[in-house]
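Posting for a labmate who doesn't have an account.
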Amino acid sequence: MAATSHPLATGSAIEVLRAGGSAADAAVTAVAVLSVVEPHMTGIGGDCFCLVSKAGAPAWGYNGSGRAAAAVRAETLIDQGIKEIGFDSVHAVTVPGAVEAWAAILRQFGHFGLDRALAPAIHYAEHGFPVGQRVAYDWARAAERLRADQGARRHYLVDGQPPAFGDVIRLPALAATLRAIATEGPDALYQGAIAADIVDSLRARGSLLDYQDFARHRGEAVPPIASNYRGLDVLEMPPNTQGLAALVLLNILEGFDLARLDPTGPERFHIALEAARLAYAVRNSHIADPPFMATSVPALLDKAFARSLAERIDRRQRVVLPAAPVPGSDTVYVSVVDRDRMAVSLINSLYEPFGVGIATVRSGVLLQNRGACFVVDPGHPNSIGPGKRPLHTIIPSLGMRQGRCELCFGVMGGAFQVMGHAHVVSNMIDFGMDVQQAIDVPRAFFDQATVQVERGVPAATLQGLRERGHAVAVRDLPLGGGQVIQVDWDRGVLIGGSDARKDGLALGY
């Protein structure tokens, strides 16, 4: 079974599985297709994280995030009057880690090579693909950013306009770039003409990234971190991702008897929001590239620490807690389980829609803006610095029971992903929902002091939140997306769900 945010990606993954490929082959194939058909969400200019569960082996993780320039210093940026790194700042561009990560995942778990995995993506880029409904909506919202950049305007607009729903779009420059990577491997991106195209484009805008930053890039195989939520071992990627915050949030929620509450009622939403505000405060204070963290991961995952945080929550009213981050929605997630029950949970992102808004003129590569997650404060563990990896919002996840994978899941949506993971897990564990129900339940998040709720949250819940001191606003757009595959070991079946907030689907055989 495969579940992704786009039908063409899901279909491509299923074709790979039918041809004898592993879940790893199918997942990389799917994410490569998504890099073509959802170019605003992900691409070869972005980063990738992956968790893999394989029978008889420890769970495996891969950190495919890129680093800041070796020459960058927070002090230098401060001297230039830069107090924060904006989403459109050239200093927000970090080395893209996705392609190297795809190759590493295939080396470890694939039956096929990168050439086979990229073939469907090359086909759609070269011969065209119809633009999906949600994709067209998001593309139109980003049109002004694309018009401001020569490369983006050339490759990702048609006569200066974004494509409409159903338009067939071809991306010939990206097809040629993908073909070079399929033929030459990751070195085509990190050491060849494509790397030169990227570096030249960035240096002309004042970036400090150079050719050596690209040539020296390597991802890292890492053991997952985990915490148990009412019998389910939830696995997340370790820092520099915010997966740690998702586990802290679940640890806090475990102190409340949520099963006795209405899953869409005001008390459940109030507790979830207050617990999330605490978990994000932990994230913002502590999570960074591991060598620079001052507090250990085990200390932050300690259940006693979570209980001390839970004690700060007043069930009757919103209390003064640390400020929250701003949510975003700019990522793709892929869940695949193969016939041998290998489960691959993979997430790939440019961060903001179309990343930093810069596309290389010759190779058509859209560049991410992950460096916007850095802070410009030399005393902070997540301060921008030479060769550092920023705090990362994208997080794949697995749910394990008695050493076997039960859930392969992820929730898209920028900073919201922490709360999204906890929301889906709680929906299934506390309220007994199936995977599709767990995805579909209306969501809420917070934008500074305002609680943003989706349409579908009951009016009585909105009123109940306001009575508890929350400033509530109904969102125009849904919060993120998500895919889940559940492994039913007893009956020998897979149960999949895909988020209607996107264009995708779950499909199996």
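Reply:
Got it, the structure tokens are right above this. Residues 324-329 have pLDDT under 50 and may be disordered.
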